[in-house]
Amino acid sequence: MVRLSGRSGARSLRRRSGPRTHRAPGRARAVRWGSMPDAEHPRKPHGRRRPSPLSGRSVAGQVFLFQVVIVLLLVVAAVVALVLQVRHDSTREARNRSVAVAEAFANAPGTRETLRIPNPSSVFQPRAEAAREATKVDFIVVMNTNGIRYSHPKPDRIGKQFVGTIEPALQGKVVTEEITGTIGPLVQAVVPIKDPDGTVVGLVSAGITTATVGGTVDRQLPLVLSAAAVALALSTGGTALVSRRLLRQTHGLGPHEMTRMYEHHDAVLHSVREGVIIVGDEGRLLLANDEAHRLLDLPADAEGREVADLGLAPDTADLLGSGRVATDEVHLVKERLLAVNQRPTNLRGGPPGSVATVRDSTELRALSGRAEAARERLSMIYDAGVGIGTSLDVTRTAEELAEVAVPRFADFVTVDLFGAVLSGGQPETVTPLRRTAFSGIRKDAPLYPVGEQISFVESSPQARALRDGQVVLEPRLSVAPGWQAQDLERSAQVVEYGIHSLIAVPLRAGALVLGVVSFWRSQKPEPFDAEELELAEELVARAAVSIDNARRYTREHSMAVTLQRSLLPRTLPEQNALEIAYRYLPAQAGVGGDWFDVLPLSSARVALVVGDVVGHGLHAAATMGRLRTAVHNFSALDLPPEELLALLDELVARIDQDETAEGDTAPVTGATCLYAVYDPVSRRCTVARAGHPPPALIRPDGTVDFPDVPAGPPLGLGGLPFETAELDLAEGSRLVLYTDGLVEDRDRDIDEGLELLRAALARAGDSPEETCQTVLDARLPDRPSDDIALLVARTRALPADAIAEWQVPSDPAAVGKVRSSVSLRLADWGLDDLTFTTELILSELVTNAIRYGGDPIRVRVLRDRTLICEVYDSSNTSPHLRYAAMTDEGGRGLFLVAQLAERWGTRYTPAGKVIWAEQPRP
Q1: What does the alpha-carbon distance between residue 274 and residue 357 come to, in Å, rounded to a whole number?
Q2: Which residues are CB-contacts of 96 (< 8 A; sequence separation ≥ 6)?
Q3: Interior/surface letters 858-894, b for 16+ CB within 10 angstroms, e for the rest
Q4: Domain holding 281: CATH number?
Q5: pLDDT in tens, 424-475
Q6: Domain check: are 407 and 338 in the same one?
Q7: Residue environment code for 138-177, b if the CB has 16+ CB neighbours within 10 A, otherwise e
Q8: What is the pLDDT of residue 38?
Q9: Which domain holds residue 662?
Q10: Using one digit for the tens of pLDDT, what is the confidence trace for 388-417?
Q11: Are 475 and 508 in contact, with CB atoms under 8 Å apart?
Q12: In this structure, are 767 and 864 located in the same domain?
């Protein structure tokens, strides 16, 4: 406990004027130790522990370590030499024995003849095992010239390939080698089995494992290690005896260490900025350094005198003379407050007495209050750096600033931002501000609420701060007419509430002024001061950077979302082949590159596309738009899915090359795509994918599976062709296409995600809309880290009575029969208004097929949303639309077809081509 003692009745002697004479080190040591009652007993100087004889700091320890190292090196060298020699001899012996055993077995009577019987293993296996036991080798293997074993110590290895080199043996040579075989590391020999004419008809291998070779070494090691241990023990004992004698004589220290220790001791003692006093057990002052003389104003001859005779204050003299323990006990000595710490010197076997340290704490008391305030401000600035800007949301960042400052700095904090800042735009100082954040010790303060639009008058502190870009202080709001002019009624309520002081700080990020922050005080009676202005400015400056970053992010995110929404399909095209529902959910962190599309094709077919560009941001969204446009263009060519993906792959590779050459844009590598074409006539779906997750299929009975669609490489890698899968879909089946954000995230892999998706689809409703909603309710994470695109299509089939088909012979006279048949079918369908144009279109198309195409020729008419006419032939030549000259005899057929039909085109099949034309139904 700290005790403050007075100096009444004290008698002190002032320090003599003039420079103080320093004592020689020898005298200091004599005073320190010579006057102790038991100085004649050897003890540890300065309380140091006695060094161990094994310590490397002493000469004995170094000798000990040196001898131990030599002995260990000799032992290690002997062991290594012995092991290497024995291993060499054993290996050489193993090679010789393996060669001898293998040659003996190869030349044994009946070996060559046994190779020609149907089952050589039945003879070789028992003979080889018997020979192995007799010769003490680890294996004897007989094999044919292809290396196939007929015998082996492990029967399950018979019939398998021999492990080792057999080529030289096939040429009639003997092979020896060290390898790791089926029974472990070993030394083996391979010898040939020869016919009388010298032809190699088989091979024999014998070998010994390394474990057997090393047995001799293991038996000799204990003797060597025992001898080494005895030598090491004798060396250690001899060194320990020498070390003990040296330790008693020098205390384990050399002359240089002892000299350096005393020199450093005196240097530290007389230069430290704390007073050090040593008092003997009889209350006599043994030592006082220079700082103790200065602080206590001791006389020059104080050492050796009684403490009570030094002129100290009674309480200080009693403490130093008593030897009791004291911790930071404060004593008043003249005009100084001295903190005294005292401990006895005999706690660890030292001489009786006490040592005390004295330091001046006069200025410490005055600085402690200011230091505490500075520490609190630094802590607040640190908390602001950590707690402000944890998200890229402008409003949340403003709220974090208000929360950090209340109640540690202000009782109420309001943040007002320009409206454009909240939406990511450039702030306009002529527009009103909006109260974005409010925090206070109470919720009923009569300040403007959050969301209020505020236009500050020119005389208000906030307006002045925005205009001048400087901090504005209103120490007393009750006498501030400029502030009260903002709202006389509300200002009176604020003053009556108890809020009396205000700091308005402009929220600036570089040259931009984003808004203003107001700090209000009510509980502390003192107004804000100049030092607190700097703290307020520092807090707002840290928050301004975070708010500006959030504003920039909001702007870029809005631009990316706008771009992405403009690139995605707004509405789905009208078609009858599929009933479609979809969902698109952007990632929480930013805009990504997931996309989908539904593309009507010729002959009532529909293409479904789902793709994904790895990454987020404007680059991913722009790349997605480029790929989607490319798919639109390629699908207009009516290409098969695998050819369309091949063209898309080349496009992505060219994009990568162009952007890599520019050097400022990330490549597109990582884009995936799935392309499916459904034909409602055949109810067949052709699917191809490039690195994309497989589609899911819900059959009419509710069962869910993932069709086996070959997985091609992601787009842009090139080099590998894409493959397709043909799916026969019953009417009412649901095809589910999606991106990897639905089935894969940081917490689970894609296999687990697919199983969870299967479970969600199994309990989904019948309609595509219900399926989408069920999947998202079951699978959507709280904060998706990736975009999610989901497309569900339920199949429909074109009725049989809406399909008419005829085979056409390769005869120009058959054209008239086609026209008659089509006219009758159109009359049955109630499409008499289209009879003339349909007959004309089919006449031209069939005539072209007969004249320029090849057999077989087939005509098909489909009644869908439009009337579709198709002419099939086996030729791959493509017709071209051209303008015929006045003198040309032909060339006007396709021109007429293009004028009469709404759309027309050519589609190639593996067996030929199809020319089709569509007419709108009345």
Answers
A1: 6
A2: none
A3: bbbbbbbebbbbbbbbeeeeebeeeeeeeeeeeeebb
A4: 3.30.450.20
A5: 888 887 788 999 999 999 989 999 999 999 999 999 999 999 999 899 999 9
A6: no
A7: bbbbbbebebebbbbbeeebbeeebbbebeebeeeeebbe
A8: 39
A9: 571-795
A10: 888 888 999 999 999 999 988 999 999 999
A11: no
A12: no
Let me know whether 402 and 482 are in one domain: yes
Task: Judge if 682 and 820 occupy the same domain.
Answer: no
3-state secondary structure of 565: helix
Picking from 180-184, 286-290, 742-746, 903-907, which range would have the lowest pLDDT averaged per residue? Answer: 180-184
Taking the C-alpha atoms of residue 657 and residue 792, their distance in angstroms, rounded to an integer, is 35
| 310 and 412 together in one domain | no
CA atoms within 13 A on the CB side of 719: 4
**Digit-coded pLDDT (tens) for 217-230:** 566 667 767 776 77
The pair of three-digit structure tokens given for residue 438, joined into one six-digit string:
């409010």
- In the block, tokens 């090393």 appear at 214
Token pair 């072209």 is at which residue? Answer: 848
8 Å CB contact between 819 and 842:
yes
Residue 875 maps to which CATH number?
Answer: 3.30.565.10
Terminal-residue alpha carbon distance, the chain: 106
Same domain, 671 and 645: yes
Average pLDDT, the chain: 81
Counted domains in the chain: 5
Q: Is the model's pLDDT at 678 over the cut of 90?
A: yes
> Which pLDDT score, from 0 to 100, does residue 128 have?
87
What 908-914 contacts at long range (C-beta under 8 Å, 24+ apart), as own/partner pairs, is 908/638, 908/876, 909/872, 911/874, 912/853, 912/854, 912/872, 912/873, 912/874, 912/875, 912/876, 913/853, 913/872, 913/873, 913/875, 913/876, 913/877, 913/878, 914/602, 914/603, 914/870, 914/871, 914/872
Cα 603 versus chain centre, distance: 49
* Whether residue 755 is found in the same domain as residue 610: yes
pLDDT tens-digit map of 129-182: 888 888 888 888 999 988 898 898 888 888 888 888 888 888 888 888 888 877
The β-bridge partners of 727 are 685
* Per-residue pLDDT tens over the stretch 578-599: 999 998 887 765 666 788 999 9
Assess if residue 903 is contained within a domain.
yes
Complete DSSP assignment for 490-526: HHHHHHHHT--EEEEEEEEETTEEEEEEEEEE-SSSS
